[in-house]
Amino acid sequence: MKFLIIIPTHNEEKNILFCLESLKNQTFKDYKIVVVNDGSSDNTQKILEEFLANHRDFELKNLEKSEHQPGAKVVRTFNKGLQAVGLNDFDIICKFDADIIFPPDYLKKVNEVYENNPKAGMVSGIVKIKKSLFEKKLAFDFRDEKKHWIFENISSKNHVRGPIKSYRKECFQHMNGLRPVLGWDNIDVMLAKKHGWEVVTIKDLWVKHLRPTAYKYKNQIAVKLGEYFYNIGLSLPLAVISSAKSSFKNRSFSEFFLTMKSFLTQKGERSLKKEELQFIRNLRWREMLKKK
């Protein structure tokens, strides 16, 4: 299978070379990589141009800096890369973050799942973050004898995480691509399931995430959660239950009220179709009842 890997990037001068080197060193070589530089103001573009000059399987697309919108910006940047290349010559579509280091057998193992399971629509490993100082000399060492890397526990190990998304082309097309809204990286999983595809994570295959997810938005989590619940069309009872579960998990009584206030004040038009919203509501109810 042939992979198209698109890497949206903005001001990643500290991380981008680690990411690109780890992809260059993959044992699986049937890929094309497009790095989409979204108006970086640091040395990212210079670093990319120097690296890509010597690697034909890597391509650079420079954009003017776009307006920052959590969730929406990264998908729009990804889509610019997609538009520049198209899907015709590829079997697997990947959206990878620029601050990820991949083990050398990452693409090989992901490809094996797609080859062996025709129902697999989305596949990934799991994401780990450093619990101590990042040692550059050990950047590409995945033995982790010092136990410096721990699971980034913001979602289940069964969830294909936003920084390392991959899609079978047919699944990606059934979903009508990625939606440029907050929560896109949960919406895609639910839409894949809507169209009968399986979502697979390889539990013993992990990547290094050099920056914790949403580290810039720690103080806005409740507000963003309310917006996400609105984007996926939760009914009021579902929003109340989901908000309560999250606030209980985070041991924050105030989070519940902030999340619900955000949910109730959303007025924008949703990007999902009515049948997609209904499927997501039904799916959420089924998952909640199953846990009980």
TrEMBL record:
<feature type="domain" description="Glycosyltransferase 2-like">
    <location>
        <begin position="5"/>
        <end position="153"/>
    </location>
</feature>
<dbReference type="Pfam" id="PF00535">
    <property type="entry name" value="Glycos_transf_2"/>
</dbReference>
<dbReference type="InterPro" id="IPR001173">
    <property type="entry name" value="Glyco_trans_2-like"/>
</dbReference>
<keyword id="KW-0808">Transferase</keyword>
<dbReference type="InterPro" id="IPR029044">
    <property type="entry name" value="Nucleotide-diphossugar_trans"/>
</dbReference>
<keyword id="KW-0328">Glycosyltransferase</keyword>
<protein>
    <submittedName>
        <fullName>Glycosyltransferase family 2 protein</fullName>
    </submittedName>
</protein>
<comment type="similarity">
    <text>Belongs to the glycosyltransferase 2 family.</text>
</comment>
